[in-house]
Design brief:
30 strands, single chain, 18-stranded antiparallel sheet, mainly beta, Maltoporin, Chain A, two-stranded antiparallel ribbon
Length: about 500
């Protein structure tokens, strides 16, 4: 990422130009084995559909059915990005002036290619065992300009590629009026024009042949902000803020109708939208920052409320195990956080934090039919409502230089009921449960000797294994995946700075 900064300054104002170009090619992947098997076990034995019987259950509660021949389906995800960014701003230079200000323009243009491939080299072998025919024969062929084209090429059972272009141009300004040496107010805003367009194709037997799509979205959001702050004393600050946040829209990969028709019927729609719109949040916060006892104790406290409209959220299609994004529902988050740092005696530092967040839907999200409810008013957005942490560090002389020893404890409360746990929603999954309470303890000790920084550590000292998340690929899949922490880990880190 090459970057160029140009700065010009005089007694009246300062001009700053920032230019950058970002280029990335990233190849990653995931294990698609469970996804493929969860889908293949729902297919009828007879590809014509005359015999609705399905193959034996391929995924059992503890893993892949041992009667199934060896099967592995990796995936390859390719992501290429090119982003050009230019910002030019002009700002005041005297921080003691009654009014300080900044204004500018912002431009960004990006191109992205995203390709997902489900590599299925054992597809024919599996289908011969389950259906008595190859995967290629089961799904048949598609019509092509030069004759029939097999849906399966012996490698990919699914491929999805999108090429997108996004352009932003914005103007912004921010003005602070220092009414008195202790009281100031700030107002500002950003107006931008965002355009997004894409072309997409998906192919392969799991997609029932090739599908193409193209489209785009555009928006012209205005995001204001305001702040008032009162520096009551040198050690006590009180403030209140308001800000609006904005997230651009985007595109969905085509969802095959033949594979997901039952899900679409339940939702009362004819197909997934090709794109989704922007969403926005309005946040309000009040807080204080204070120092006590000759600055040996620092406390920061705040309370907030956030209103979220037109939420960009995933819609899961449980039968075909595919999902897309749509703008559905409204939500609200309220809470507070408290942070404290204390130096009770020389060499000892104590850090503490406490937070509470209640985030839930304030409007039921659904399409037109009674069976299309995706979230019920009052359902939680997930996450742990309560979080707390405390860390104690002791700094001491070691080998004529600096040593330290530290212990940290972190707590998170169990999650509340989400939309997937609500039996009134179309995405209800009786196997999905709330996360466990989490207690994480870590130790670290070391020192700085010369240019070396060496430390030993123990993560997850209690060797805890709480349930963080539970999921599975399809409504008919018996195999669930649980996520937890890495077991107790002991290690050594070392770095050298010249």
């Amino acid at each position: 990422m090459p970057v160029l900064k140009i700065d010009y300054k005089n007694d009246a104002f300062e001009v700053v130009s920032n230019t950058s170009y970002f280029k990335r090619r990233n190849i990653s992947g995931y294990d698609g084995t469970v996804y493929d098997l969860s889908y293949y076990q729902t297919l009828p034995i007879d590809p014509t559909g005359e015999d609705p019987a399905t193959p034996p259950t391929l995924l059992l509660p503890r893993g892949i059915n041992p009667d199934v021949s060896y099967y592995l389906s990796p995936s390859v995800v390719t992501n290429r990005q090119r982003i050009f960014t230019q910002e030019l701003r002009i700002q005041s230079v005297d921080p003691t002036a009654p009014i300080t200000w900044v204004a500018g323009v912002f431009y960004q243009k990006q191109r992205q290619l995203s390709r997902e491939e489900l590599v299925d080299p054992h597809g024919n072998q599996l289908f011969e065992q389950l259906f008595g025919m190859s995967l290629e024969d089961y799904f048949g062929q598609a019509a092509g300009a030069d004759g029939p084209i097999p849906l399966y090429d012996g490698r990919d059972s699914y491929i999805n590629q999108s090429i997108s272009h996004e352009k932003q141009i914005a103007v912004f300004a921010d003005v602070t009026w220092h009414i008195t040496p202790k009281l100031s107010v700030t107002g500002g805003g950003r107006y931008e024009k965002v355009s997004y367009n894409f072309t997409n194709f998906a192919d392969g037997p799991q997609n029932y042949g090739r599908t193409d799509a193209q489209g785009g979205t555009s928006s012209k959001p205005f995001t204001p902000k305001a702040n008032i702050s009162w520096q009551a004393t040198q050690d006590n600050l009180f403030y209140g803020t308001y800000a609006r946040g904005f997230r651009p829209g985007g595109a969905n990969a085509p969802v095959p109708y033949d594979a997901c028709s039952d899900d679409f019927d339940n939702l009362g729609i004819t197909g997934a939208p090709s794109s989704y719109k922007s969403d926005k949040v309005d946040s309000f916060e009040i807080g204080t920052k204070d120092k006590f006892f000759d600055r040996k104790l620092s406390i920061e406290a705040s309370a907030f409320t956030i209103q979220w409209k037109g939420i960009q959220q995933f819609v899961n299609l449980p039968t075909c195990a595919i999902r897309y994004i749509d703008n559905l529902g409204q939500a609200r988050a309220r809470g507070f956080d408290l942070q404290m740092t204390a130096n009770p005696i020389p060499g000892i530092t104590v850090d503490m934090a406490l937070g509470y967040t209640d985030s839930r839907y304030t409007k039921t999200a659904q399409y037109a039919t009674p069976t299309s409810i995706l979230a019920v008013k009052g359902d939680s957005l997930g996450g742990s409502p309560w979080t707390a942490s405390i860390g104690v560090q002791y700094d001491f002389p070691a080998f004529g230089e600096k040593g330290f020893a530290r212990v940290d404890y972190q707590y998170s409360s169990p999650s509340k009921r989400t939309k997937e746990m609500d039996p009134l929603t179309a995405n209800y999954d009786p196997g999905v449960v709330a996360s466990d309470a989490q207690h994480f303890v870590g130790l670290r000790a070391g020192g700085i000797i010369g240019g070396f920084n060496v430390s030993v550590f123990v993560d997850n000292l209690l060797d805890s294994a709480p349930l963080l998340d539970r999921s599975h690929q399809g409504v008919d899949t018996l195999l669930y995946t649980d996520t937890t922490w890495r077991p107790r880990t002991v290690g050594l880190t070392a770095s050298y700075r010249m």
